[in-house]
Design brief:
Layout lengths: L25 H4 L22 H15 L4 H13 L31 H14 L6 H14 L21 H7 L7 H9 L5 H8 L6 E3 H4 L16 H11 L10 E3 L11 H7 L6 H4 L5 H10 L2 H15 L21
Antiparallel strand pairs: 1-2
């Protein structure tokens, strides 16, 4: 089903913490209890918490307006990393305890951000519609709304009805999140395990049009030894990266560089333009050019309209990976802890 494009509007909720005050009518609008369908569907909270989507949207837009260069990438990455471990169940939001190291503290996730935005939206919705709107749905909406900010309209529709998982293990994040140094075979296997195909892999890699990468994540491509580094990396670009990362990039996890040089803050098709020029930052980006099927898709994806349409389809498909619905899981009262 094609997504309907709706205006995002102007953020109407201030950034300050007293967001609970900004939605006094929610207490009147909230229906009694929550009804959970067996499958995801549009406007799932229409009766149980009618303002749910608007609450998330306004909070996210206000926060993105204050940090438009970084926050969309953070929330989109948070959603990706959630869906790749146990499905889109908000398990990435759970804090570690004395008896368990949670996903967010696994090495691939220590640089994740945007948790506070989800916390704020959850607090407002719990005050208005207790135990109704899942953290998993809030995260799915927040990722969409953050990326959509620059366009002033929703880039894709989000079907709702996810429930929250009750398990979060760092070891599973390590095993399931694709590595930035992965080759194509490993990437294809990782995506296939989630029901995603090569086309999804290529298109979703386009999310690297926003965000940053830390030097230690691509240090292997900058080797200055006899091998001279990764020959598939554009030579001029490699020199720029070496200058930014210094003499010991493998131990430099503080310096960050744009994933999409030349268009770092815009969600657009420029990532694929850079990829064709040998300016993909990670080995996993360059790996897309090593497979005939994947490489054959890249030229068309340099067209903005085509990329946005295909990304809409792929991210909606990813948003259904491993979801809990109906009576599965729970609706957490606090996204950071199971009930």
């Amino acid at each position: 089903m094609a997504a309907r494009s709706r205006s995002m509007g102007t953020p109407s909720v201030p950034l300050q913490v007293p967001l609970l005050v900004a939605w006094p009518l929610l207490l009147l609008l909230a229906g009694a209890g929550g009804c959970h369908g067996a499958l995801l569907k549009a406007h799932f909270y229409r009766h149980s918490c009618p303002a749910a989507e608007a609450v998330v949207r306004d909070i996210v837009l206000a926060r993105v307006a204050a940090d438009p260069a970084a926050l969309p990438a953070k929330l989109l990455r948070l959603f990706f990393h959630d869906c790749f471990v146990r499905g889109c169940d908000a398990s990435v939001l759970i804090d570690s305890t004395s008896g368990n190291t949670a996903e967010k503290d696994a090495a691939p996730n220590t640089s994740l951000g945007g948790f506070d935005v989800i916390d704020t939206a959850k607090a407002v919705l719990e005050a208005a519609c207790p135990g109704t709107v899942s953290c998993a749905d809030i995260l799915a909406l927040a990722a969409r709304d953050a990326v959509s900010f620059q366009f002033g309209r929703e880039l894709w529709d989000v079907q709702l009805g996810r429930r929250d998982g009750v398990v979060s293990r760092a070891s599973e994040a390590l095993a399931n999140i694709p590595s930035p140094s992965a080759n194509f075979t490993a990437l294809e296997a990782s995506f296939a395990a989630k029901g995603l195909d090569v086309k999804d892999l290529v298109i979703l890699s386009g999310a690297h049009t926003i965000g940053v990468g830390h030097c230690n994540a691509f240090a292997g491509r900058l080797s200055s030894g006899s091998g001279g580094g990764d020959p598939t990396l554009n030579a001029a670009y490699a020199s720029q990266l070496r200058a930014r990362c210094g003499p010991s990039p493998s131990s430099n996890n503080a310096t960050a560089v744009p994933l999409d040089p030349g268009s770092a803050a815009r969600f657009d098709a420029h990532y694929f333009v850079n990829l064709k020029l040998g300016r993909g930052l990670f080995a996993s980006d360059a790996a897309l050019l090593t497979d005939r099927r994947a490489a054959g898709m890249i030229h068309r994806l340099t067209r903005q309209g085509y990329f946005l349409q295909e990304f809409k389809n792929a991210v909606r498909k990813m948003g259904r990976v491993g979801v809990l619905t109906g009576d599965q899981g729970e609706v957490r009262r606090n996204c950071r802890a199971v009930n």
